[in-house]
Amino acid sequence: MIRKAVGAIVEHDGKVMLVHKVKGAQGKIKAMWDFPKGGIEPQDVTLEQALFRELKEETGSTNYEIMKRYDDKILFLFDRATREKIGFERQETTMFHVVYRGDGTDLTPEDDEIDEIRFFARERIPELLFPESREFFAKHVSLS
């Protein structure tokens, strides 16, 4: 089975938001930086609704504006342990380009999977992401 998910490349003042995921981490043990993203829930009527729910859960904020929905998706296979635990073989993440319209004071994770939210210069992003997200970022975002 395929797990459907949504995620966002969130920009603010020329920088890109990443969240520090400490739980879940696609079956990996160590914490990692990633774009805000997560699975689509049964109550989510649209992909956009799922995205705003995920952004609220992971960042505590609703101050976002969707600029575009990407045609490409981030695709990856779960490792065996994760497959057995969650019941999905792979994940297909629909990505959006989003602008954060807040001032930073409303950014507090509501989800215990996230312990930090930070904005990074675009050129730092590739070194922080795992391969599938890094490839998507390189294909869709200019570093200049």
TrEMBL record:
One of its GO terms (molecular function) is hydrolase activity. Keywords: Hydrolase. Its cofactor is Mg(2+). InterPro entries: NUDIX_hydrolase-like_dom_sf (IPR015797), NUDIX_hydrolase_dom (IPR000086). PROSITE patterns: NUDIX. It comes from the Bacteria. Transmembrane segments: none annotated. Residues 1-143 form the Nudix hydrolase domain. Pfam families: NUDIX. CDD domains: NUDIX_Hydrolase. This is Nudix hydrolase domain-containing protein. It comes from Paenibacillus albilobatus.
